[in-house]
Amino acid sequence: MKLHVGCAMWTYASWQGRLVPHPLPPRERLRAYATWCNAVEGNTTFYATPSRETAESWAAQAPEDFRFLLKLPKPVTHERRLSAEVFTAGGPLHVFFTAIEPLGRNAALWIQLPASFGPGDLPTLAAFLSRVPQNYRYAVEVRHPAFFEDPAAEQRLEKLLTEADAEWVPFDTQVLYETPPSTDAEREAWTKKPRLPRRTRALTRFPVVRYIGRDDSEQTAEGWQPWADITADWLREGRSPTVFIHTPDNDEAPVLARRFHDDVRSRVPELDVLPEPIPAEPPTLF
């Protein structure tokens, strides 16, 4: 029984020398992060597709059961909006799949859609999911309010995703917006993060949750308690969930991800234990 937990990135300036060793060459940074967490969001692939050589380096650094959630490129999801033209030979989707091939089944693909992608666009999503390679898992994040406020639109999307064996990714921002921001990072997050109802239903064996709390760790941990209960239930049902923990500043995100894992393990004691992180500094003799 395994729960995967992770952060929005695997390298971050405030972690260096404090949570992970510093300096580290690029080819060692994911390896160090992977001693803290067993999953990571690949947000950078939204902005630029990595080279195949880079993906080979990621695969070499990641443990066998590590999970990548890689965001599809912006030209595919936001500029061409999943239209049939994205499948053109040599186009951005072809280049993306060629590049990430070394990651194999460690990679799930994250289709984050713009807020303007609404119920009227569902036939496009269905056609897209019917044509993509089936050797990956797919997870879809929608932000159009109708999918959360209109039961008919919600049911249509759930049916489409269930038939495609694709997951609906919730991005839970409720704790972020519960009280006014108190840090600069929280104020910035208020200008950028979606404000949508919390969704907690899994559609597949591999549910994915994105949760953002506050810069106060205790507020963040208090806010995720419903998710700890839900995640424990998923594990008991035989599902294999992945939960990503964010905060506006992300300074303590790896620590919090492990704390979330501990919270779930207190509910499900048979859950596998995470490995101990490598020390940020070499041990001293005294």
Automatic annotation (TrEMBL):
It comes from the Bacteria. InterPro entries: DUF72 (IPR002763), UPF0759_sf (IPR036520). Transmembrane segments: none annotated. This is DUF72 domain-containing protein. It comes from Catenulispora yoronensis.
